[in-house]
Design the sequence.
């Protein structure tokens, strides 16, 4: 009876999450049967890729929805300008480094003072730092995949001009999925990592087995719920991030 009374509160929490959460929605209103709660499948790893370069896209090997391996090049920019700037910065540093070495040599011969050496060293260090900054930009001319997965959203096309910090694409790891749930906080008397349950997937009509992997850090005092995450024991090939369904728990006997 108490489980059924919690259902409206869970539904309210569900609506609030959809209204205000900007991140992955974990809407999980309780189902009508005690021991059942709604859940959402999500990826353990996801990323929104951007760059602080202003450059044209030279190569875009993958299209939206395609799979890629870890370290595959996802975006390559035309960085001729940045490479030229790096060459100029390195040449300038070589000149300042030569001046510093010459000042050291003259100082040993008492033909230059300590101030001359310090000024030359400062110029050399400054030019080295400037070259390092440009080298870091050149290092961003290729964006490689941090993990294997798929492209879920592509916001740029080949030959487009990328702007600084504008979103380019979103990627997810479609091999490591988990389920997010909101369960009644009174379940904390028995629910713990390792508890298994059956998850019925709305989109496919099939079922998968899952196991609680982590409990939330705090209980929501308004809805009296707590977030939990579950690892998939047997995900199958048809399960995708964003799918929803019903988790069926075996409630302990009282």
Sequence:
């Amino acid at each position: 009876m108490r489980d059924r009374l919690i259902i409206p509160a869970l539904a309210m929490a569900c609506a609030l999450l959809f209204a205000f959460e900007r991140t992955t929605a974990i809407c999980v209103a309780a189902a009508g049967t005690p021991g059942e709660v709604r859940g959402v499948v999500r990826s353990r790893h996801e990323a929104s890729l951007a760059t602080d370069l202003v450059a044209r896209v030279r190569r875009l090997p993958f299209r939206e929805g395609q799979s890629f391996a870890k370290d595959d090049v996802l975006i390559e920019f035309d960085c001729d300008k940045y490479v030229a700037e790096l060459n100029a910065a390195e040449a300038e540093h070589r000149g300042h480094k030569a001046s510093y070495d010459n000042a050291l040599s003259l100082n040993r011969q008492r033909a230059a003072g300590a101030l001359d050496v310090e000024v030359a060293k400062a110029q050399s260090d400054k030019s080295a730092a400037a070259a390092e900054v440009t080298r870091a930009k050149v290092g961003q001319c290729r964006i490689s995949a941090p993990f294997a997965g798929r492209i879920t959203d592509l916001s740029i096309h080949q030959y487009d001009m990328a702007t600084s910090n504008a979103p380019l694409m979103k990627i997810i790891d479609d091999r490591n999925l988990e389920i997010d749930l909101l369960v009644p906080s009174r379940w904390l008397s028995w629910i713990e990592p390792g508890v298994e349950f059956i998850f019925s997937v709305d989109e496919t009509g099939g079922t998968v087995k899952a196991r609680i992997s982590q409990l939330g850090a705090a209980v929501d005092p308004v809805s009296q719920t707590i977030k939990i995450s579950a690892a998939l024991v047997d995900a199958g090939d048809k399960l995708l991030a964003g799918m929803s369904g019903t988790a069926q728990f075996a409630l302990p006997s009282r």
About this structure: The mean pLDDT is 86. The two ends are 13 Å apart (CA to CA). The domain at 47-77+142-172 is CATH 2.40.50.100 (OB fold (Dihydrolipoamide Acetyltransferase, E2P)).
